[in-house]
Amino acid sequence: MRTIEVATCKRETTSEKAILLKRPVLVLGWIPRIVVSVARSLRDHGVPVDVADFTGEARPHSRSIRYFKRLPWPDSDSSRFLAQIRDFIQQHGHDLVIPADDQALLALVQHYDDLNNLAHIACPPPPVTALVLNKLSTLEVARKCGLEIPKTKLISNSAELFESLSSFPLPWVLKPSSKQVRAEEVKSYTFRAVEDVKAAFPTTKDFTPPMLLQQYCSGFGVGVEVLMHKGKSVAVFQHRRLEEFPYSGGMSVTAMAEQPDPALIEKSVALLCALKWEGPAMVEFKVDGRNGEAFLMEVNGRYWGTISLPISVGVDFPLYHWQSVHGETPVVPDRYAVGTRWLWTTGYLMRLHGLLVAARRSRPARHEFQQSLMQFPAWLNRSTGHALFCASDPMPSVLELLRALKFLFVSDAKALFKRVAPRGRFR
Q1: 226 closest CA partner among 310, 146, 158, 162
Q2: Between 317-325 and 32-44, two packed helices, what is the crossing angle to 10 degrees?
Q3: What are the DSSP calls for 208-220, one per residue?
Q4: What's the pLDDT tens digit per position in 111-142?
Q5: What is the DSSP letter of 178?
């Protein structure tokens, strides 16, 4: 017998006999704060969890994960990917496969029919999932549902970007139109002045796939998380983004549980119903603090980076998801601890590093760095929910932090050598 705990590390004993009575679940993905959080939740309730990944990222070491399988990239060898994941499912008897990032979601959709006869695939059929993977399609459905969306234009190359200067007022956000690309292949940009556009694209550049040019929406980020099952919402949760990495806008590094806003919940559920979504999803809004106006940003059709926050306050989405799939009726609390704060330590430190680099040329970045550095100790208290750290299962957090520090050290060393080495040596 051993003890596995969720993000709050509240001690709960799980018998090995109970675990053997439930068939294992396969989580496909690599992002530790998602994969490990889902695994801890299910393992706490007697469900064995295995993990598979094809990105080449480091293996997640956690007491909550039973077996790990390295798969080939679906893009480069689709047949081998399918054969190996089928073999893994058949060998270990998984009855549920959960995608934990957009690339995993896409891989499962591409082989949906071949895998769905072996296990329940935790996403809707391909035509539905495609609406969420394509951001423009999501926005179009949202518009028809009456949701406010940012002014948006599809851009195929940088020339079209400059042509929009007169008709599309700055500031702008330029981001991929599809989630069907690797995150490292296409960047997102925020342009506040014409000079920013010229600096980013000094020469003509084609965008493959096309990019979305959107108006910049001021305000704070709000995530409305919903578990959908047979057209109805099983559980809802809401959080506010406090700080992000990179500091200019990106992934949450600190967040706070909020009281669900009935209007946002209604809009989110209506959108997911219109999309015919099944399973977990996060509907992301940007809310203007001055007038409360909420603009839809996107929909993540899988578990999100702050998943350990609702789990830590008793809204256990992975458990409710598993129960719904297996014909059980989840018992969902009607309230949770509003105001609970959440910290992704590795992301916070990487954000600080980015601010420190920017501080050399930006006074606002320097001020924000000083402020974030002073606030960091206040986040390290017992009431904070952690993205990954858990005293009974520390290795996922420790290894992620060490890998991040190594990456930052190497990148800083290269940048320093380029500045001090003779000109042309590192071209």
Answers
A1: 310
A2: 60
A3: EEEEEEEE---SE
A4: 999 999 999 999 999 999 999 999 999 999 99
A5: B
Question: Exposed, middle or buried, 272 (CB in 10 Å: 0-12/13-18/19+)?
Answer: buried
Q: Whole-angstrom Cα distance, residue 280 to residue 147?
A: 20
Strand, helix or coil at 296?
strand
Proportion of the chain above pLDDT 90, given as a percent: 69
Express each pLDDT in 30-88 by its tens digit.
999 999 999 999 999 999 999 999 999 999 899 999 999 999 999 899 999 999 999 99
Question: Which domains can be identified in the chain, with CATH numbers?
Answer: 2-122 (3.40.50.20), 151-215 (3.30.1490.20), 220-343 (3.30.470.20), 345-420 (no CATH)
Cβ atoms of 350 and 245 closer than 8 Å = yes
Helices 395-420 and 345-358, packing angle to 10 deg: 20
Helices 262-275 and 126-133 cross at an angle (nearest 10°) of: 130
Question: What is the C-alpha separation between 250 and 275, in angstroms, rounded?
Answer: 25
Tell me the pLDDT tens digit for each residue of 349-382.
Answer: 999 999 999 888 888 888 999 999 999 988 888 8
Residue from 44, 8, 4 nearest 340 by CA = 8
Residue 183: how many other CB atoms lie within 10 Å? 13
DSSP 304: -
Omega prior to 171 cis, within 30 of 0: yes
Buried b / exposed e over 344-369, threshold 16 CB at 10 Å, is: bbbbbbbbbbbbbbbbeeeeebeebb
Contact of 22 with 291, CB cutoff 8 Å: no
SS3 string, 397-424, reads HHHHHHHHHHHHHHHHHHHHHHHHCCCC
Between the CA atoms of 28, 252, 124 and 318, what dihedral angle is there, to the nearest 10 degrees? 70
Contact 239, 306 (CB under 8 A): yes
Alpha carbon dihedral 294, 298, 304, 307, in 10-degree steps, equals 10
For residue 382, what pLDDT is reported? 80
- Predicted local confidence at residue 11, as pLDDT: 36
> Would you state the structure tokens that stand for residue 168, as one six-digit string?
């599309």
